[in-house]
Structures
1.
Amino acid sequence: MNKQINSIRGMHDYFSEDLDIWNKLKKIFKQVLNSYSYEEINLPILEKTEIFQRAIGDVTDIIEKEMYSFYDKKGNSLTLRPEGTVGCVRSIIQNNLLYKKKLKFWYLGPMFRYERPQKGRYRQFYQLGVEVFGLKTIDIDLEIILLTNRLWKILGIDLHLMLEINSIGSQLDRIRYQKELVLFLEKNKSFLDEESKKRLYSHPFRILDSKNLNVQHILKKAPLLNKYINEKSLIKFNNLCKMINSYGIKYKYNPNLIRGLDYYNDTVFEWKSHRIGSQNTICAGGRYDSLVQDLGGIKTSAIGFAIGIERLVLLMKSLNIFSIQTEQINIYIIFIGEENKIHAINLSEEIRDIYPHLKIFVSFSNCSLSKKIKHAVESLSRIVILIGSNEIKKKCYLIKELSTQKEFYLIKNELMLKINNIFKK
Ligand code: ATP
Ligand code: MG
């Protein structure tokens, strides 16, 4: 036998067990986003490498080690998108959408990051991304929180998600804060783990995110970013918190919440769940008011978030939501004798013409009749139609109703009526 070739580590095949949940999720995403007048867009999976380098920040995890970049046949460096915001900003600039009024978008698709695969962390994973452009005031920050909160409610998971929120101020605020933070961490270097030591000068904010208990302990005494944030940003943030509160949405103010990408400012937030292990952030986002300009557009405020679909599915599964078993097959057709195959195919086509929503399965395998019936039962089929030479001679079909174990003969018209009665919505 030839050696088997497997998929790339951290990249998975998805089967109907998961895809059924994905499709239901997508339907609900669509419905909720539509109710807020957000429009769906589809963006390329490949972009020029330089766009991510310019937007995400040189010393972030993504740029330093997570990008799938390669040269095409002309020597251009291309990258499989590690996230969706940058491509979306590129697109709205390129298509002159900034001059239009409708600037609320969403997309769903695969992202790629060369990370260490583990539960909830993969190399190809899917995100639902939402981006809004041109709105400066915190009303849109509130709308985004209300929208995500509504999603969790409709999905039935709101009690298992907690909102964490922070303001990271302006870039200038963060430069001033970074100096103080680095001074503090230098003084306490002996308490830092190897990872944090490496980040001390390249990306000290990531240390705030460290899972190491010693580091977390020492961080309790570290200077806090909120002391360095400008007055205007602080007022905006306090007002936003009040507004969120007034809608009865519980949140935790987390002064150490920073995002892994450089382009954020002011509001940042994450929705987390305790039920899915250590990779517990299901949805993350924030404001990025300078990115459009950084990528060559006119100065435009912006805010967005992304939901990690696999992590959301892990949570849905842990709560058994959407897991009600549905019929995998509605009508199972068995022909007895090769000469009757054509009658089975023709009947299945006729049923599909009249009842396009039904799942009809014609058994072509050459296993025994009892095995076929067993398969029909396992696939939760409602009825089995048997076609043998006897039935063809009598111009009728033998019907087995699996739930009642009843058997009866029907001519074609009666069969169609019966199907209508059983499966009418
Ligand atoms: P994390 O701290 O979990 O690495 P991040 O800051 O890198 O998250 P974002 O870039 O904000 O994540 O992505 C938004 C969401 O996409 C995350 O909250 C998570 O649900 C999901 N996500 C990010 N990276 C992965 C991955 N490698 N595998 C699966 N889901 C992911
Ligand atoms: Mg990450």
2.
Amino acid sequence: MEIIIQPDSRQASLVAARIVARTVREKPLAVLGLATGNTPLQLYRNLVRMHRDEGLDFAGMTSFNLDEYVGIPPAHPSSFHSYMWAHLFSHINMPKERINIPDGLTTDVPAACRKYEQAIRSAGGIDVQVLGIGSNGHIGFNEPSSSLSSRTRIKTLTEESRLDVAAAFGGEEGVPTHVLTMGLGTIMDARKCLLLAFGKKKARAVARTVEGPVTAMVPGSVLQLHPRTILVLDKDAASELEMADYYAWVHEHKPDWQKY
Ligand code: PGA
């Protein structure tokens, strides 16, 4: 794992944007795996700015989002569809027909999940997968106890995850109980994983993900088995890492050709 610690989320999000932009520039037909939540907002803002000011071109891109709530129509203001259009897709030139988000209204969940997996494979696999992390260590909505080799499927949210998003649904009672999410096996197939985490609230999950044992109880820890995972953290999210000084040293001494 490569661990990049920045002073704050603004600078961390700039580094993350440079990593994604490099893939977009180097591979004009790249496949992007995208996440929602508060964490990637500044990353998306940077990508929108790079598109507007530097001509970063998404015309050949395909995207797959990690997850969507079950039973929530795409037009619902708190759906992940709405989030993605509001914060990214309306502002860049990614072709609409190559944007993929799980269908939370499907009447045949297993078939829709199989189709999603098939679509990722047909697109050639994900080149870079953007990830946040839950305070309980989930990535995507793979809650603790998720199989480390799971594929896209339905999951039941934990109470902690439901509380985390309660405000967006007018209180916990309004939060959907189920989601469709890429599995940990799906995420592990991405060529590169880029996990962002900001704030003290994520420090424990980050430390368990990086320095704890690989366990289904901390789904993010499966990334220890991924050959190309980059974590971009602010100081607070890195605050419980025992080897933080070493990670910072490694980053400072990177050869120029490896820098972002
Ligand atoms: P957040 O969510 O970015 O809103 O903190 C991350 C997650 O739950 O994966």
3.
Amino acid sequence: MRILVVEDDVNLNRQLSDALKEAGYVVDQAFDGEEGHFLGETEPYDAVILDIGLPVIDGITVVEKWREEGKSMPVLMLTARDRWSDKVAGIDAGADDYVAKPFHVEEVLARVRALIRRAAGHASSEIVCGPVRLDTKASKATVDGSTLKLTSHEFRLLSYLMHHMGQVVSRTELVEHMYDQDFDRDSNTIEVFVGRLRKKLGVDLIETVRGLGYRMQSPNDAS
Ligand code: CA
């Protein structure tokens, strides 16, 4: 899962980005509205954290532009505590949720998790696929109750496939959601990660769809 953080306060941006990385996400950072808007327009994000008060272009205009351009990724706005009108304007412009400053990073993380889950059609914080359970809150996964020891890449891969269970996900899409913009991306490595993940899962839940990509689905739903 890949997140964009648009916040001009350098310390706050770093604090949020570090916490998100710690929780297993890939993070891109932007420090003004123009850069943030560009990234959100050109890169696929699973969620965006967007400050309202930004240099060059303000956050409300940024989210408005994305929605006009047909970008539908979940957007969490950061607002000032006393500016209720900003919250209304942000939601009306197309934001999905907001957190007022000052906030606890844990609250931001919880809201981001919920936005990503809901966007993928999951209401519960735990996503289940046969014997595999993904705990989005603790960023861990189990098979038949025993915890899987996954590297950060393997976890991101499993998390993306489970959030999009039943759908065919292409290698390009996986690469885009597993690495940040500066990473030297190579879609061949995806095959390697899928192989390792299959081995660790020990159950055959990730299907290769020839020429298209991969699909993870519960044995009960297989057709
Ligand atoms: Ca600001």
4.
Amino acid sequence: MKQKITVLGSTGSIGTNTLDVLARHRDRYEVFALSAATQVDLMLHQCAEFRPVYAVMASAAHARELADKLRDNGIGTEVLQADDALQQIASHPEVDAVMAAIVGAAGLAPCMAAARAGKRLLLANKEALVVGGALFMDTVRRHGATLLPIDSEHSAIFQCLPEDRTSWPQRVDSLLLTASGGPFRQRDPSTLSQITPEQACAHPNFSMGRKISVDSATMMNKALEVIEARWLFDMAPDRIQVVIHPQQIVHSMVQFKDSSVLAQLGTPDMRVPIACGLAWPQRIASGAAPLDFARLAALTFEEADAVRFPGLHLSWQALRASEGTTAVLNASNEIAVSAFLDRRLAFDRIHAVNLRTLEAVSPPTLGSLDDLLALDAQARAVAREVAGQWSL
Ligand code: NAD
Ligand code: MG
């Protein structure tokens, strides 16, 4: 029997890479549902190729446009348009696995729906876990969902860790997340205020969505990944370290109690962690080129510079603070990055907005998804106000 897959955020960088891998294995997988925010024409193209049962767009206007075009092209995909349409396609009884590739906290509710329905959940959408934290992990556990990391660092760590989770505390010493250092690893920190969105989005090794590209440039991406690792692997924050590795060949490492270190290597191509998550514990072809060791240049490692990347350390601070602080950090960062991409905020103010918002918002006790979404909304409002004060 073929596995039925829902791809949330199918028009994005992870979404299109996922469809690339799925297209290589039509004997194993079929696409059940796709979702996107606004890209109607790309979605039409994807529906024509994969013939999903359902497609979801983020607004009624885009949904109508897609439905008209599908009808004109004789494609039978049904466009769902309800507030909970993403939750529906993430938890539908026929679905085996959900690729969570929406960007930002907007992906939290559908991730939680997939977890509650006990699905195999392939998590690229790191912000969902950063916001969801303990509640997200409890939901996964209580409903017997299978959570598999797609973020390349976490996929690497997952592949290096022993399969028996109960043995981790006794065997594992620490996790070493590698970071590319982004496009400004060697830039004079006094010039960071002049960086444009185009420069920030020109990542040296990868083509990614604009939000994660900016996060890579500030290293807030790594801060979010430290938080993600804390939850995925139930690891104390002080046992998670970050090391810069510009070549992005070593995707991350696990250090054991005897100081032995296991690393996972590969060409920097997101189809590798995607294929790994889809097929686990089996292995399928990903389409990525294998490493050619004879032609590989030196692999180098260096410490992250706290002056150039002040945001990185917010992850450990937020994890030590009260529950919900990581949700505040994420919301603030989403607002600050979007203001920077709209040319309303200087690059080096992203961190300043995050700091101010963290100071201004004290998270209440959190018991439910609604509590988290309310805190997310509150932090966004504060961050918008702070960013407005520094508006260009
Ligand atoms: P992207 O911007 O290229 O794609 C985002 C997708 O989500 C698009 O399909 C878009 O239409 C959809 N979307 C955006 N906002 C939405 C909303 N409010 N409601 C519904 N749909 C919405 O982003 P990406 O680079 O593919 O990243 C997706 C996620 O994967 C992010 O959380 C990112 O951090 C993570 N990730 C990406 C990479 C990468 O190489 N691109 C690597 C690791 C992790
Ligand atoms: Mg990553």
